[in-house]
Amino acid sequence: xxxxxxxxxxxxxxxxxxxxxxxxxxxxxxxxxxxxxxxxxxxxxxxxxxxxxxxxxxxxxxxxxxxxxxxxxxxxxxxxxxxxxxxxxxxxxxxxxxxxxxxxxxxxxxxxxxxxxxxxxxxxxxxxxxxxxxxxxxxxxxxxxxxxxxxxxxxxxxxxxxxxxxxxxxxxxxxxxxxxxxxxxxxxxxxxxxxxxxxxxxxxxxxxxxxxxxxxxxxxxxxxxx
Amino acid sequence: xxxxxxxxxxxxxxxxxxxxxxxxxxxxxxxxxxxxxxxxxxxxxxxxxxxxxxxxxxxxxxxxxxxxxxxxxxxxxxxxxxxxxxxxxxxxxxxxxxxxxxxxxxxxxxxxxxxxxxxxxxxxxxxxxxxxxxxxxxxxxxxxxxxxxxxxxxxxxxxxxxxxxxxxxxxxxxxxxxxxxxxxxxxxxxxxxxxxxxxxxxxxxxxxxxxxxxxxxxxxxxxxxxxxxxxxxxxxxxxxxxxxxxxxxxxxxxxxxxxxxxxxxxxxxxxxxxxxxxxxxxxxxxxxxxxxxxxxxxxxxxxxxxxxxxxxxxxxxxxxxxxxxxxxxxxxxxxxxxxxxxxxxxxxxxxxxxxxxxxxxxxxxxxxxxxxxxxxxxxxxxxxxxxxxxxxxxxxxxxxxxxxxxxxxxxxxxxxxxxxxxxxxxxxxxxxxxxxxxxxxxxxxxxxxxxxxxxxxxxxxxxxxxxxxxxxxxxxxxxxxxxxxxxxxxxxxxxxxxxxxxxxxxxxxxxxxxxxxxxxxxxxxxxxxxxxxxxxxxxxxxxx
Lengths: 226, 544
Fold this sequence. Notes:
The complex is a heterodimer of chains A (about 230) and B (about 550).
Chain A: H1 2-9, H2 21-56, H3 58-67, H4 70-95, H5 100-131, H6 150-186, H7 196-221
Helix pairs in contact in A: 2-3, 2-7, 3-6, 4-5, 4-7, 5-6, 6-7
Chain B: E1 2-4, H1 26-30, H2 35-63, H3 74-109, H4 118-140, H5 154-158, H6 163-190, H7 203-235, H8 248-282, H9 289-303, H10 318-330, H11 332-346, H12 355-378, H13 380-386, H14 390-420, H15 426-452, H16 467-497, E2 530-533
Antiparallel strand pairs in B: 1-2
Helix pairs in contact in B: 2-3, 2-4, 2-16, 3-6, 3-7, 3-8, 3-14, 4-6, 6-7, 7-8, 7-9, 8-9, 8-11, 8-12, 8-14, 9-11, 11-12, 12-14, 12-15, 14-15, 15-16
């Protein structure tokens, strides 16, 4: 049986409940994909609510969209796409058996891009919004030019902070995962035969990235600004 | 269920090492990653929650003995029915079968050593416990009065009770459900033993698979809905407040998008249990195996497109109502396929009426009642009359209690010898099964009548003309309570004094009956090879 072979060899990272590494790798990958499906539904709920309200309060939501600074969003989009590239390169390095220093280099670069994204978002963009008094619950002020659209604009901003906030939470979790991966790499846990944690964490990171692409389009770009 | 060749009967003898005596001490339980021990952790937790939720029901039924209410202030009554609903739905019926029997049985039934992610499995129990503690804490410190459905704008703007804390508890518990579902999906896909093809899987596995799909797809949506509600309650930005352009109906749509499928999270695993019970006690391969298997998936798929039938009278468009009505009727088709196939399995079977079979027969009758009365509610015109009355209460209790709880009890009895290695006292068990059946019907059948005559649900007082029916219902509840209490006593008693069960006390088929009772920690000492599902031919049990 394959079991005997697997138990005899004890490859690194092998968990007892599986028959062999192949089964373990497939299970890990499927597990992450199923998790990402739950994430799609999680964000999907928000996107649905956002789209419904956008249809109900079209004018307000367009006004709200125009309050956002595209330059922040666009820069962050660029930063995140770069981080996805470096994440993929980290996995590639492990797969092809490169030195652990190289894997760590790409992982840390990914973390820097991730931190840059959050830094830009919190210290520039959200601070800017706070000064402009467009943060619901924290000194939100109606502007005279909105007229009766005020409550709708506030609701747009509420969705904006809620959705990008949830995304930021996922980014922070991702940074935590990357930290663990750096430690695991430093301790020589990975080899071309076993790099599953890198691979499935990569899936997560790319997913969070893709969610941002949708957020950027639906929150910043939509609404006939260009 | 299936025939195992290699390593079938080489489990250790009863005195040998098994998962219960492999290690001792509280730490060996709280840090276990063994799916069987985690199943038992869930068994203890959900039983406790069932007692708490049941206690709330007892108080409600006592209160309703008198038309003006015998015990509680109306505000307190609101808190009691809310507590009953939240605990019974989120903390008992949703996790009951999947997390206890599912955890214990799924890896064994498919011939695996454990679930795919054992640590995640333990984590999901801890998540459940954290959610339960937060919810119970909120209930003890004053409770919540919104009903288990948390409808805004009452829950977001007006309720003075602990809505946010309870919502956080339910939100957290949802992740337990997601993680368990994820674990089961991967386990069933990737961990099956050689020869365990999809169409040789026990029907309990099919039902658990369909359930896990619903849990994984639906729960995230209710999670985000609850977060939106919490946000609305904290910041009052008007997401669900019509005064500033919000839409309370959006909450209902998103809530029922999960909570209707959640009904099938609650009933599909019990249906899987009943499939196993019927085939085991008829000593006959289940009739129309692939239809029963596929009907589970069909129910899972249809469950996601029927949520609007909860909202026929809310101002939803009449065309949406028509579509939801038709789709809701369609759920009857796969449900009926199951009922007919179980009945056909009985035909010419070699039937015996041990306690699990009594529960299974009870399930068939009561679920049929619950299902058919559901059609009254799926029809637009009758729903206008029956919506918000005790008819609905009776309908979903026939499904949730007459269906889910009774099948859960049947399953616990059926697999008790496997889980503990001990037999329960059969006479007491049959008595309890009959008491549950009689008590249940006496409790809830009168509620169909009250509802049809117009008594609204969730009211602390009622017109005197309904008193006879209410007293009958309360009397039934006390019989039902005794029926629940007896198994609690004798099952605990049997842990020490029950007769040793042996590997297969029922002569049932299936991998779990080929190994020792209780099973060894690694389940199978040599990996099983499966050749056929439900092979009851040639066992001398079948009449033909």
